Amino acid sequence: MTTQRRIVLVTGPSGAGRSTAIRVLEDLGFEAIDNLPMGLLLRLLEGPATDRPMALGIDARNRDFSTIGFIELIAKVQRMDHVDISTLYLDCDDEVLVRRFSETRRRHPVASDSSPETGVRQEKELLDPIREIADTLIDTSPLNVHQLREEVERWFAPKGGRHLAVSIESFSYKRGLPRGLDMVFDCRFLANPYWRPELRAEDGRNPDVARYVQSDANYAPFFDRVVDLLELLLPAYRAEGKAHLSVAFGCTGGQHRSVATAEAVAKALAEQGQQVAIRHREMERRSLNVRSD
Fold it and tell me: Does the structural domain 5-156 have CATH classification 1.20.1300.10?
């Protein structure tokens, strides 16, 4: 049986972290080539194969870039039996991209004679069809360089035998579901600390908030069943060769109930020896807003 050659195409709007992601993949053992002209990809695959996977950066700045051409190129490579190709798309909120360009005083490469806002909008319109077909989406809006590295490593680090990385995340339904989730649990049925004046400004990492959420009669049965379900599924996912499982807990504001539950589940899994990472999306957003004030 012929071993498939693994190729990861890395793309996304300018300023979203594409170059950083490629460097992380290179550190993970990938052979990395940034700003590869699309016309060279097929010629590259015709050359001698190596044991190393490849990370190829392709973006709208390439002179031969086109949305249709990119999608057709992926379809053509997918028909090759000896190649396993996937697309990593680094996404980011418009306002964050504009702020990043403003802070660095760089011109936007897609609209160098216009404002960063115009460049961001035009490039996203160009890349939207590619975003829709991407295999992996990472939203870098709330992430710093170190957090982006951790996220890329969770998705693309070598499987390492029996290891399975579990990502636990909390979020607000008002801001929509995070991307790339495998499992989602709704915590909005639990007692809400928001209605307690002394707890409103705190978050679910506060012991008093956690105790209040856990005092709800429905909490213990819910928590036990979630942990039992994960205990059942994690060995099965690991045996299937899955390298990463993303589990999220949501509530109205992403501050109290989802955070407290995510913390408790992450702790329970870590105590069982699972490799667990935890993120609180809305808490990260609050932290970024405080630092920018």
Answer: no
